[in-house]
Amino acid sequence: MRVLGISGSLRAASYNSQLLHAARELLPKGAELELFDGLREVPPYDQDLDNDGVSAPVQALREAISAADMLLIATPEYNGSLPGLLKNAIDWASRPRGSASLADKPVAVIGATTGSFGGVWAQADTRKVLGIAGARVIDCDLAVPHAPECFADGGLVDLEFRAQLGELMRRLAQFEIADAA
Ligand SMILES: Cc1cc2nc3c(=O)[nH]c(=O)nc-3n(C[C@H](O)[C@H](O)[C@H](O)COP(=O)(O)O)c2cc1C
Hints:
The protein has helices spanning 15-26, 47-52, 56-67, 84-93, 120-133, 147-150, 159-174; strands at 2-7, 32-35, 70-74, 106-112, 136-137, 143-144, 151-152, 155-156. The chain is an alpha/beta fold. Helix 1 (15-26) packs across helix 7 (159-174). The structure holds flavin mononucleotide. Residues 9, 11, 14-16, 76-80, 113-115, 119, 147 line the site of flavin mononucleotide.
C-alpha cells in the first residue's frame, strides 16, 4: 500500500504537515506514506495550458497521484473552507476527463486547525470537491482542534488524537473503510 500525503499548507511549521508525519509514523508495516512536496510550484489552473501540454510541476502532481494506491490529505481551514492551493491542485488532478489521476482514487481527508473545530468545514468542502472531481472519498474523520495544544517539537503529542490517527492508519492500510456514498 503506497499512500501519498498532501498537506494543504505551505507553512514550514504546518500542523497539517506534522499530522501527515505522524500518520507516516503510525502506518503499519508494509504500508508506506510519501509526502508530496511540489504543491508550491503548481501554477494556477489554466485550461489553455492544460490543452497545450502541462508544466513539469503539474505533471509531477499527476504522476505522484497516479502512482499512489491512496491519498491522505491533511488540510487547514482558511476562511471556512479549503485553501486555494489545495483546490487548485485538485482541479489540475481532475483533468483530463476520462483519464484523470484522481479518477476513482481512494482519498481520505483529515486536518488540524488552531481554532475550536479542527477545520470540519474545510474537510467537508474538500470531500465535496474530491467527489465531484471523480475521486473515491473514504468515509473517515479526524479533525484536530486547538493545534498548539496537540503538537509539540514537530510531533503530534495529544494521546487521544494519536490513538485515533493510529486506528485510522490501521484501517486505511487494510482498506477496510467503506467508501462514502
Ligand atoms: C487566511 C487564513 C484563514 C483562516 N481561517 C480559519 C478558519 O476559517 N477556521 C479555522 O479554524 N482556522 C482558520 N485559520 C487558522 C488556521 O487554522 C491556522 O493558521 C492553522 O495553523 C493553519 O494550518 P497549518 O498549521 O497547517 O498551516 C486561518 C488561517 C489563515 C492564515
